[in-house]
Amino acid sequence: MSRWKKKSYDGIHNYVEQVEDVLLSESSWSTTDSECSGCLHLSRVSLPSEGYPAAADLELANLSPFQALDNSCAWNIQGNANYLASASTHCGVLAGLRAHTDPTTHAPVSAIKGGMLQQLALLAAGAQPWHQNICTAHTRRLAYAATLAIYVYEAEAGSSEWQLFSILADHRKTITCLHWHPCSEDLLASASQDRRVCVWSVSRQSVLYAISICHIPTTVAWCTGHRDLLSFCTEKGPLQLWDYTDNTEPYAFREDYGYTTNIVTYRWHPNVHGRLVIGHQDGKITVYREDTSLWHSGSTILDTTTDTSNNNQTCCQFFTSDVGKPRHSGFPEGGGGGGIVGEENDGPRLVALEWDTCSADYLLVAYRGGALWLVDVNTMRVITKYILPVSASVATLAWLPDAPGVFVTGDAEKGILRIWTVNRPTPVENHILKETGFHSLCATRVENTNLSHHDSGSMKGREMERKAGGGGAVVPNVAIVTLFKDGGVGLYHLRRKQWLFNREHGHTETIFDCSFKPEDSDLLATGSFDGSIKIWRIDTMEAVDTLPNTGTIIYSLSWAPADLNCIAAGTSGGIVFIWDVGKDKILQELTAHKDKKVFCVSWNQKDARRIASAGECGYCYIHQVSGTLLQDYRHPGPVYGCDWRDADILATGCEDGRIRIYNVTKNKKEPITELKAHMKKVFRVKWNPVYEDILCSGSDDSSVRIWSYSRAQCLAVLVGHSDNVRGLAWCPELPFLLISGSWDRTMRVWDARRATCLDVVLDHGADVYGLSIHPARPFLLASCSRDSTLRLWSLSSFVAPLQLKVLAGKPIEDIIDKSAGESRTWSGGLQLCGMRAEHLQASLTRTDPAHTSTKRLKLFADLFCGDIRVRNVWDLVYVLQGHTDISLLSTNYTQAIMHHSHLIKCSLAAAAEQEMDENRGMGVGGRKHSGLGVGVGQGDVGEWYLRCGALQQYCELMTRLHQWDHALALAPSVSVDYWRKLMARHAEQLLSDDNEACVPYLLATRDADKLINFHIGRGHLDKAFSECVALSKAGRSRSLKGPPPDIPPRIPDTNGAGKSVGGRAVECAELVARWHLLRGSPIVAACALLAVDDIKGALTMLLRGHELELVVVIGRLLGCDDPSETTEPNDSKDVDNCNVVEKKEEKKEEGEGGKSGEETTTTRGVSVRCVVETSLRYLTYRAVRLGLWELAIDLANKLPKSMNQTVLKAEVILSYLGSHEEREALYAYAGFPSSTDCLDRGRGGVGSVLEQVLFLLLSPQPNKGLTMALQYLQEQIVGDNVDREEVWLVLRLVQAVPLVPVGGGAGRWTIRGDERGALLALSAYLGGVRAAILDYRTIVPYLFSHASYILEKHRPSGYEFLGQYITTARTKWERGESDWGVVTSNTSACWLWCDSGVTRVSGSHLPRHSDSQTCCITNQIIKGPSYFLEKSESVMGQNDALMWAKVHPYSPLGTGLRLNPF
Questions:
Q1: What is the spatial distance between Cα 957 and Cα 967, in angstroms, rounded to a whole number?
Q2: Which of 565, 790, 957, 1159 is most solvent-facing, going by the fewest CB within 10 Å?
Q3: 1292: enclosing H helix or E strand
């Protein structure tokens, strides 16, 4: 790091403005304005390239989408969402997407329906360091601006947890200012360098109003007392007012059209209508007094009686007295100019100013250099000058609400928050929050949630204890929104002196590249335009290492192979440097590119000695790590991409549109192969990880091409992007699966064999640059973008057929391609053929045959799962199987959720190890991090000790940290003798320091000799005498070794009365699990319950999170699947293990006063198996969606032989609409008689109604079965018999009937209008009842409303009675009644009720970025994945769609089309 000095953010900002980014040097981009980032650009219109058809005429899929991945099975992805209907303005090629109909399945399918690329995690962008007024808050919400997006966080109701609520991304250039409406938490104003001012609806995540102006607005603010009046100004002025609801042009404030010096900021007085102050760059301030005539005639004035929506408070009442001159300007007198430092020839520099909320005339002003003044604007004189330390200066300030005369400031050099009062020139308190300086802050009230009794909202609770000695500030219930110069964002509670929310966010500018570490793939490195490299742990999304601002742009980075903990990076300054992460130093700097930009760096993964770099100079250089230049390959223009195939073969992409391939072992400067690739520059080249002959290239002609190196031939052209292609990544296990990212803000997933686009996502808000696949998890993808975010994605949906084959027990040859080398064909089927698959197969061959089945399930489930946290599940399952050797668990086990039997032991060991590291001054990652405050790491160790109940270790740690008060306060809980010894040690320590504070401790320990000697040594003979007498009397009156005083009895906890410690632990685990589930982490939720041996609860959490494969696999591993299946020897052992765990739970409950006898081992085992069976049923529906009919039957056969299994197989057959011969073959495969025999059995009247309905529906006359089923359901509803299992099985059968004729195979279904309407209405009503019982609370009212709508629309004869039942059910739900006449504890029908609770799939807590959508039933903005309905115009959230389909599998649009989001 000796080469680069750490520059300030102002310095890098100026530097960045001068950099001409090569990515913007194309003539088609408009970059007329000076930007803080050279990579910002305007959208351009896509023009058809020469020789190619226009985008609107393109047909993307030459083959049927059903065969996109596998010729042997249909790939039906109808209705499964992220379809870009909302993105049509961004992607011109959408007009070319056409619907197809597969002739074999007779089902319509759209070309691209999406939803297969599932977002798992999002790392929000850091706060930008360019502009000042970029954070604002409104009670329970806070917002800050990154470069291109606004991030809004919200406090959960009844909790102090803050979660990312929405991302507002509509500005195309750097955001300059934010301001929240003072009376509405839903209205937010923003301004940007794109010359637009926007008014946002935060909850709708959309722009309500926007206006474009001629110059860049720098500040925006709502006018006091006016609901619809917004003000904004540019640097030069004037300040303008805009009534955004009146559709009028903005007008200048008081017709004042300009100022002599630039405006830094301005503030309206929060209480006085029309009073305004403007701060100028030269240090002068301009004050406008009140004037009732200044407001536009169309503006609305609010008073305290105004009714505002989404608000729990009203605007302040204003006063309209006109005092003095309307405007005066000047520099405050009496300050003396002391401490004010300005730039050369620039004079004093004003930093911030704020009105005193308790006075109409006082203003707080801060200047660069440390001047902080309270100014009377009437006389323009300084009332008070506040004194800061010599090296400190104010970066930002704010008044505290509900605390008259109290304000806070944030230091520019270091993260010190200072609390001041107006009548005291020095700070009352100083809080060191961070080593990095403040950038901006604001204060907001905090709701009284989870506060102690004395904080409960009374006047006493509103005050806080004062500092000892008096003069302390009364700190209200206020939190400070803090933005730091490194992009960090936090919310600090002043009264509690703790963080409510604190995260070191991501980069502040474009992230150009991301790369997983080969040896430790939990680490992901990112390089950014802001000049830094950060390394993240992807399981927590926290930074573990940072190379701070290097003063240059990081365009590319590459990890060293194997265990070399180094990164090579290419920069805009022409340097390639090698960073040793472990030692935190630069090992080598390669300067062959001189001062030309380096666009790409590639470290050879086969030969660690070679590093390739390509750049603007037109050369691709090959260096040794030592710095020796091996080769230099000259190109006719800049070289943008390079990639190694093996140790010797290298491919490059050039500006001339050609790909050149070199053999570095030959001393030739010419390429061995040259491919005339694209019509514009080639930006990326990537070799296929499996097929050595295949590589791909991405270009500025918006296409991706697939090449055969040996034949020098283009195999496919992937057309779909509407802008320059930047990111490329191959899936290492499905080598034809390719992911691309583009300037059109989309990521596309391709089947490269057939040039077919499988999925499109628009979650990134700007250009997608870097893509990287996890080395150990081939279906986990990372992406980075110009929106400064880092995102993780799961590709598991693309291998759904393979997952189903594994669960169905298909041969491994159907899943893994065993052919090797040249015998593999590029056009092969859907099979795994990467290195992980080879290792998995080798592992199975070494496994004991008795254990092969379960191990195979576990290995494949781990391979397919994209969430890295699943390894915690396997660790806990291993423990629950009875294994005790912790060393065989994953290396991250102790950092994740541990089993309760390991928690104390491992936590103590981890705390001791961390304490040793801290004592050596090491810190995380082997060195001390500058971002940590003093003692922060040791404080974490202390927290670990407290969690483990190791109070003595905690006390000893506190003594080493010189926090004796904490130690002495807890020492009596260890023992009274220990407390006395600790007191004596503290007295000795103070005595050695000659500190007079030792006196009370010597008195407490009765050490008369030392006490007298101390006083005599100081000449205090009178004190020595008096205290000696006091000690002698105390010694006579009470023995030193007497018993301790009585401890008052502990007040019982009414909430936890009667519950044992073990019972409370399970209760806490359930709360933790519910918390994680609602935040889109079902896997972590399951781990929380597995840690306390709650297998059923864990499987239920996974079921609610739609992790169906994991439910089945864990059930098998723990022996909780159906015992009627043929089990292998190890399976019986697993059953025993599961029963042992259940018996332990039951015994523990009986011994601890729990629910003994309520739930037997058998009952619990049955309920667990029901969860597994329900997952298998949903997986069967998934096979139906994919058109894998025989596989669906195989999965249904995994259920125990019962009517539930028979009905499931019948549902599969009823859903199939093929030819008669194909249907008969499917009958035989499912074990049913022929259709003719089914008719005979159904008409015979033998058996139950369920059996008759089943066989009639499968017969050539299915209408008879439908009529019988509807009559039966009607009778059961009228008779209040909906608690019978047979009712729901009959309902499932008729719900499988196709109500909409589709294709030629639907002719056998001729459904009368009355029967169609009756079925839809009955299904919706019974679905609503079942949803109410299962607590699907987000869809219940809409199901009842939908049932009423269907009944009114179709008016089926004989079903008028249903309207009254629907009304009664809706009323019961609205009243909160829970008695629906159903016994859910019935073990014979537990499959009906085991899937209770709302569904929350992975990532469902993440707000969408640039393609926000509104749910068609709830009218709420959708978070997480979406599900588009049949017309692709209406959309539901994936969670709502799943719950809806579980109880009523028909479209909420009332068309009768079936939903299948499984």
A1: 8
A2: 1159
A3: helix 1285-1295
The answer for residues whose C-beta is within 8 angstroms of residue 1195's C-beta and 6 or more apart is: 804, 807, 808, 1176, 1179, 1180, 1183
The identity of residue 46, as a single letter, is S
Question: Which pLDDT score, from 0 to 100, does residue 406 have?
Answer: 94
The partner residues of 631 in beta bridges, in order of sequence, read 622
pLDDT tens per residue across span 42-86: 232 233 333 333 333 322 222 223 233 333 332 222 233 333 333
Buried/exposed code over 266-281 (b: 16+ C-beta within 10 A; e: otherwise): bbbbbbbbbbbbbbbb
Is residue 1024 within 8 Å of 1017, Cβ to Cβ?
no
Q: How far apart, in whole angstroms, are the C-alpha atoms of residue 1094 and residue 1115?
A: 12
Give the predicted TM-score (pTM) of the model: 0.83
Tokens of 1371: 């009323």
Supply the angle between the helices 976-992 and 1008-1018 in degrees, to the nearest 10: 20
* Token pair listed for 642: 């390079």
In the numeric block, the tokens 């003063």 are attached to 551
Question: Alpha-carbon distance 505 to 482, whole Å?
Answer: 12
Query: Which residues are CB-neighbours of 1067 under 8 A, at least 6 positions away?
Result: 1056, 1059
Kindly list the distances between the CA atom of residue 1223 and the CA atoms of 805, 1190, 1227, 1261, in Å, as whole numbers in the listed order: 22, 11, 6, 14
The number of helix segments (H) and strand segments (E) in the chain equals 31, 60
CB-based contacts of 1113: which residues, under 8 Å, 6+ apart?
807, 857, 858, 861
Q: How far apart are alpha carbons 255 and 249 in whole angstroms?
A: 14
SS3 of residue 1430 by DSSP: coil
pLDDT in tens, 941-954: 777 777 777 888 88
Beta-sheet strand order (sheet of 566-571): 554-559, 566-571, 576-580, 585-590
- How far is C-alpha 876 from the chain's CA centre? 25
Give me the pLDDT at residue 1013, please: 79
Question: Do β-strands 327-330 and 554-559 pair in parallel, antiparallel, or remain unpaired?
Answer: unpaired
Residue with tokens 């209040």: 1280
Q: How confident is the model over 375-424, as pLDDT tens digits?
A: 999 888 999 999 998 888 999 999 999 889 999 999 999 999 999 999 99
Q: Angle CA(773)–CA(774)–CA(779) in degrees, nearest 5?
A: 75
CB 1343 within 8 A of CB 1328: yes
Q: For residue 1217, which of 62, 101, 79 has the smallest C-alpha distance?
A: 101
Nearest one of 1254, 1249, 1251, 1293 to 1271, comparing CA atoms: 1249
Domains of the chain in sequence order: 511-582+596-634+646-791 (2.130.10.10), 802-906 (no CATH), 936-1037 (no CATH)
The residues near 301 (Cβ < 8 Å, ≥ 6 apart) are: 225, 226, 295
Q: How many CB atoms lie within 10 A of CB 163?
A: 15
Structure tokens at 1279: 């008779």
List the one residue out of 578, 571, 562 whose CA is nearest residue 611. 578
Query: Helices 800-807 and 1108-1117, interaxial angle, to 10°?
Result: 30
Query: Are the beta carbons of 688 and 735 closer than 8 angstroms?
Result: yes
Tally Cβ neighbours within 10 Å of residue 1112: 26
HSE of 1357 in the Cβ direction (CA atoms, 13 Å)?
A: 2
Whole-angstrom CA distances from 330 to 348, 385, 467, 523 are: 12, 18, 38, 55
Contacts of 424 (CB under 8 A, 6+ apart): 471
Give the count of beta carbons closer than 10 Å to the beta carbon of residue 1062.
17
- 1099 in Cβ contact with 1115 (< 8 Å): yes
Chain centre to alpha carbon of residue 1173: 31
**748, containing H or E segment:** strand 747-751
